Amino acid sequence: MAPFLEFELFKAVPSITQIQLDKFTETDAIIDTVDNVTIGEEVTVNPYRANPVMIIYGLISLLLIIRFSRNLHQIYKLTRLEYEIIGHLKLIKIEDSNMVSSFFNYMFIPKQHTFSREDYESVIAHETVHSKELHTIDIILLELLSCVFWFNPFIWLYKKAVLQNHEFIADEKSVSSGINIENYSNTIISLGQKDYRVPLTSGFNFIQIKNRIIMLHQSKSSVFKRTLNIISVILLFTGIFVFSSCKNLDDTLSGEPLVVVIDAGHGGKDSGNTSFNVSEKDIVLNISNYLQSLSDEKLKIITTRTDDTFTSLDERITFINNQKPDLVISVHCNAHSNLEQSGVEAYYYESENFERYSESMKYSSVLVSALIRQSFDNAKIKPANFKIIKDVNSPAVLLEIGYLTNSIDNEKLNDLEQQQEIAQFIYNGILEASGK
């Protein structure tokens, strides 16, 4: 069954060198009052997590590419030797191979060969077909594909089938040029016992003797039918490989939108933080509604409330889990007794589920990075166990978009155009982190 390996796409976390990660030690913060909430130590976000599978894949691919480069260099040195021109070919006599082979219009034969006249004519005709049909290009492309997709067994079957078809074509056209089929068959038998040929070349001795003899004595219609069957099988395997070897975990290839629940904090009787006659519940509701208006084929945005109504935390969590979202963002505004305190903060829950934890931390990092671009002065990300991010079954972020107690942040948060821009930057951050 294909594929045997799956590779994640678009999972690297963008660089966030401008984000300050510090320990939360303030005891007089006025963040939402929630019982039994603890804030963890700051963490250093590593944007690139080493994947052992990818390391092994990279090392093997590198070794194969080195081997391919070495073989090309070996052939290049051989082509610098003296040659004689015979028809379409440049004939080069070498000592490190006892096989006949060709690379484009260069033909390599053993220096101390003992070919009869019939054998010599057969191999010249055979290698001339390889040269004129540009079979070397196929071989080079197959080698490159093998370096990249070595883990997929179908690439090796495909390579074997193509090389076999090259020999069948060369045999059939050589005999069609007027060479006696019996003499040609005897040449295949006499030269088919050799073991080593120059890498990346088309070789007279390359394919199994039995198959070539059978193909030579079949009718042309049978040859065509078998070739057609081989091509059909190759196309089938290629289709399986193309459509199943890669899986995008963010559904970017499947066309399915990323489902995101935006939780506008507080509401109704719970106004949240209030400062300069501005209530947190109103600001986050406006931003939540703006975000919902951006919902499209890439992001399906669902909100926990669309008006000024109170919903308990348990009711919110139940609603969110019923949606089975890919991401949850609970939007809040911060407050502090120190009126100079400003900027954005993101909290994520350090879950035992590594995938959920790493996704939450990644989204936290990218979202605060996006909001920094919206002219907030600084940003922090911290682990915490707020109920709204702890009890949901999806990656989740509690996002504090500025301090209402800071006059500069308050002015931004109370401006309708700035609220729309904040919503747009959050939307862009989700797309960036998800690879949509």
From TrEMBL:
SMART domains according to UniProt: Ami_3
Ranges of residues in domain MurNAc-LAA: 317-431
Record carries keyword Hydrolase: yes
Record keywords: Hydrolase
Record EC number: 3.5.1.28
Reaction it catalyzes: Hydrolyzes the link between N-acetylmuramoyl residues and L-amino acid residues in certain cell-wall glycopeptides
Protein name listed in UniProt: N-acetylmuramoyl-L-alanine amidase
Organism: Winogradskyella damuponensis
